[in-house]
Design a protein that fits this description.
Elements lengths: L1 H23 L22 H34 L15 H30 L6 E8 L2 E10 L5 E6 L21 E4 L3 E8 L4 E5 L4 E5 L5 E6 L4 E7 L11 E7 L1 H11 L1
Parallel strand pairs: 1-5, 4-10
Antiparallel strand pairs: 1-2, 2-3, 5-8, 6-7, 6-9, 9-10
Length: 269
């Protein structure tokens, strides 16, 4: 009875704490940048990354089941065939049932993982009727971007370079090794296609919160698509060992409303 009361007390305190936190917290704080000692994913901001998180959860479920089953089998074998209980074993027999189980079960698990995995793979690879295209070109060691759908006053496509902000020039709230002088500004709820290539060596355009990771290879154009579902700053980096300053060419994608995006486009055009 006392244990039951203690359990209900802890549960009541937990519920009250959640209510207080929800009332005090002004809004939702998203994790869109890497943190020190982080072992989890960043918060999702695109449908593709949501699918990746769901696939990870599904695979983790099967992984936990397999680990528990194998550990149970090992412990049961150690206990049953301990040298004190069975010092000498002269007779071995084949277990047809158990052999069928440990052969068919992994095949079924692989099938259960393969179908959603292939589905997500093809969805992430296909670009469906993009509303705008941004070209990203990797250099040693910075990125250059081109908005080929928009023209400036000279009739040329809008393009700019994006360099990492030095530590000495960081403003309050900016992130070391992640913020850049020119963000890639995109509108929310818009199907965006990124065309990625490399100018000198192989680079990799990666933004975890958007589920983007595509190699930039010199002489080749690779593409990927995304739909940013909310406003914010989404950070990434080159994920290829492209040279001595590989860790100093970050990516910063700024998602804004369509109205603010058009205002920004008017300013730089």
């Amino acid at each position: 009875m006392l244990k039951f009361l203690y359990t209900n007390l802890y549960l009541s305190v937990f519920i009250v704490s959640l209510i207080i936190v929800s009332l005090v917290t002004p809004g939702i704080a998203y994790n869109d940048a890497p943190e020190a000692w982080q072992i989890g994913f960043q918060d999702s901001a695109s449908p593709i990354f949501e699918g990746m998180l769901e696939l990870f959860d599904s695979v983790s479920f099967y992984l936990i089941v397999v680990v528990i089953g194998v550990l149970y089998g090992l412990v049961a074998i150690i206990k049953k065939f301990h040298y004190g209980k069975s010092p000498i074993t002269h007779h071995f027999s084949h277990g047809t049932v158990i052999e069928l189980v440990w052969t068919i079960t992994p095949a079924l698990v692989l099938l259960a993982i393969a179908f959603p995995s292939f589905k997500l793979l093809y969805l992430a690879d296909e670009v469906f009727t993009p509303s705008m295209t941004i070209k990203a070109c990797g250099h040693q060691w910075y990125w250059s971007y081109e908005y080929s759908d928009f023209l400036n006053e000279d009739g040329e496509a809008i393009e700019f370079d994006s360099y990492m902000v030095p530590e000495s020039d960081l403003a309050d709230g900016q992130l070391r090794l992640l913020d850049v002088d020119n963000n890639v500004v995109v509108p929310v709820d818009t199907n965006i296609r990124f065309i990625v290539t490399g100018q000198d060596v192989i680079h990799s355009f990666a933004v975890p919160s958007l589920g983007i990771k595509v190699d930039g290879i010199p002489g080749r154009l690779n593409q990927t698509g995304t739909v940013v579902e909310r406003e914010g700053l989404f950070y990434g980096q080159c994920s290829e060992l492209c040279g001595v300053l590989h860790g100093f060419m970050p990516i910063c994608i700024e998602s804004v409303s369509p109205e603010k995006y058009l205002e920004w486009m008017d300013e730089i055009a």
